Sequence to fold (73 residues):
Amino acid sequence: MTADETMIHVRFAPDGTVTEISARPAGLGAQDWFNLLSEVAGQYFAALSGGRGLFRLPPAALGAVQAKLGEAA
Fold:
């Protein structure tokens, strides 16, 4: 991990849906935010134990996510 990576934590329900996710933009549901991150930067996601996961986004990937979010607005 480098100091400039953005970490986004995810918590899943037993059925696999997203219940909590950090850095979620206002007006966007938890599952929708996870879906967007997965579409644009899925290669930076790591599944963890206990129904958790983590996106470690380098600056370029974060910029791509923000650009895609801007397109959706």
About this structure: The mean pLDDT is 94. Helices lie at 30-41, 59-72. The two ends are 31 Å apart (CA to CA).
